[in-house]
Amino acid sequence: MIEQVTFAVLLFIGGTIFTLKILRLRKGLSLARPSERNDQKAERWKTMTRIALGQRKMGTKPLAAFFHLIVYVGFVIINIEVIEILLDGLLGTHRILKYPLGSLYNPIMSIFEWLGVAVIIACIAFLFRRWFGRIPRLKHKELDGWPQRDAHIILYTEIVLMIALLTMNAAEEASLKNSAPFFFSNIIAQGLAGISSENLFFIQKSAWWVHFVGILAFLNYLPHSKHFHIILAFPNTWYSNLAKRGAITPMTAVTNEIKAMMDPSFVPDISNNPKHFGAKDISDLHFANLLNAYTCTECGRCTDECPANQTGKLLSPRKIMISTRKRVEELIENPGSELNLLDNYITREELWACTTCNACVEACPLNIDPLDIIVQMRQYLVMEESSAPQSINAMNTNIENNGAPWAYSQADRGMWIKEN
Amino acid sequence: MSELISIPTLAEMTAKNETPDVLFWVGCAGSFDDRAKKITKAFARLLMRAEIKFAVLGAEESCSGDPARRAGNEFLYQMQALTNIETLNSYKVQRIVTTCPHCFNTLKNEYPELGGQYEVFHHTQFLKTLLEEGKLKVEGGAFKGKRIVFHDPCYLGRINGEYEAPRKVLSALESELIEMKRCKQKGLCCGAGGSQMFKESEKGAIDINLERSKEALASDPQIIATGCPFCNTMISDGVKHFNQEGKVQVLDIAEAISQADDI
Question: Domain ranges in chain A?
Fold first, then answer.
């Protein structure tokens, strides 16, 4: 009974903290403008299924995709066992699904074990890749400190969770003399053969509790981690930008202003006008930008493909996402913060280095769009502050005056026909 | 190469009560930049050879607004776009072909939301169709067996998903088509996009166009082919930087096709 109560209390506490964290995230995301991406629902479900569930964009790096798939499948399927853990924990039963599942139970548990071992191998492979691999995007200086620590904590935790699962099974098998002949735990069970049945029972129970508490802890760790993508990948891909890739999101406020200028009788609806053009801080961005930032798993595929970053410029699309998330976190903790996303988190040098080549957008396995943030911040710089680089101002003046980025007369546009 | 070309403007054609099959949108570089003008002329010549009835806007054409928009000047972009759309719609233009992937992208993907609906082609797509329909015939000529590497312009490839047309057209030259490691979806930008063409680059280890030119030269080509006047400038500069301009030519696909028979 005590165990059941303890279990229920822990579950309640873990669940409550997680709920609070989700509410906190909601508060953070609501700092942005609402997203207009509620159209084309069928297409959105399709995108989510393809990109998040089906991991269609992972395959460009086949080895990473393979190990990632193992961890992903392992995570989803082994978590079915959590149902049993919850029921056992609350009802004080032991392996409650054994009866309804009958002869299927052992094969299913065996599959979980196979997956568990595969997950351990994949996590070790990922650790080795981080330690010894020559993969610049995983060593980039913007990952120094928390991001690197975060990446390691996740991998260690997953290994611990899987080991707990195997140990639990093994201790039980050793004490009950092979009641559940699972392949891997059977091997461990042989190593445990000399231990008294009381101690084996203790090991089994401990492993069970470690697994349960581990899952709760992991769940509550997610909102602080890049690993949040295991949940946010789904809403994030649902809110993907479905417009044509080459089309920058139009600013209706500007269209209205121009239409009013051209036609004085035109009365625009200004109720939805932003407080200023472009983005200076979080409240100027839209919901999907922030969701992007929290979904980013810091894999760095974007930065790896970015021509500016690859030639030593300050810009890194991944850092744009990390900075945005940091700024939202700061605003949640300190709503009166007088800092801004612009300058305090993302510098002008970064923004002006972008060639809008869309390589980052193409590379992201989760349809995150760093370019959208960059363009909105450029819009702020140009349209609110008029503080573009001198040469950009000159280009704009030329376009304004003579319809070309250079100072040639528009009347001469057809001159090439006569030149031979 | 040097036969006089006579191309009507849309205004002239309309005055004669005629309508073109397609409007050739020349773009700023194609109108004013000396190097890009050669691309414009080469493509115009090909259109004439294929007996396509086409016109240009001439003095009525204005910047599509792409560099302004990507530099963050949405106001200027929309002014340009709305003005151009008014011009295009007043002539009831339906089909447009352009030698600039930036104009191509903006006309095709960004004008519709402001009321400009056209069927827009990049010139490599247009040339591909002309070759397929037999309206244009090309033999390798001077290009036969030459090593050609194609640099994907971002706004044609990654952004509009067109990787096939330029390669298909190049294959008509019976040359040896080679690929860089960073090609197609992973094609490295030449460094000109996002209005970088018109400003100094930020400080870094190397200029993007040099990085790209180095990669192109490493594939040991005789010709580097592009489909964008800005890529052409950037890579030509890169080739000069590495003192390879005597050995390696930088050509637009339209130039290669139009020269195949001439040289």
Answer: 2-30+61-238, 252-410
CATH value of A2-30+61-238 in 3.30.950, 1.20.1630, 1.20.950, 3.40.1000? 1.20.950
Question: Which numeric CATH code is attached to B139-260?
Answer: 3.40.50
Of B32, B201, B202, the CB nearest to A408: B32
- In single-letter form, the type of residue at position B221 comes to P
Beta bridge partners of B251: B225
Single-letter code of the amino acid located at B205? A
Q: Which residues of A touch B110 (CB under 8 A)?
A: 246-248, 250
Q: What is the pLDDT of residue B4?
A: 54
Which tokens go with A194? 């000399």
- Name the class of domain B10-128: alpha beta
CATH number, domain A252-410, options 1.10.1060, 3.80.10, 3.30.2010, 1.10.3470: 1.10.1060
* Spatial distance between the Cα atoms of A210 and B12, rounded to a whole number of angstroms: 83
DSSP track, A252-292: HHHHHHHHHHH-TT-----TT--SSSS-SSGGGSBHHHHHH
pLDDT for res B5: 66
Residue-wise pLDDT for A140-192, tens only, equals 999 999 999 999 999 999 999 999 989 988 888 888 765 556 788 888 888 88
pLDDT in tens, B139-179: 878 898 999 999 999 999 999 999 999 999 999 999 999 99
Q: What is the pLDDT of residues A182-210, one digit of tens each?
A: 788 888 888 888 888 889 889 989 999 99
* CA distance to partner chain B, nearest, from residue A398 (Å): 10
pTM confidence score: 0.95
Instruction: Say whether B202 and A308 touch across the interface (CB within 8 A).
Output: yes
Given B6, B71, B160, which is nearest A246 (Cβ)?
Answer: B160
A197 touches B at CB < 8 Å: no
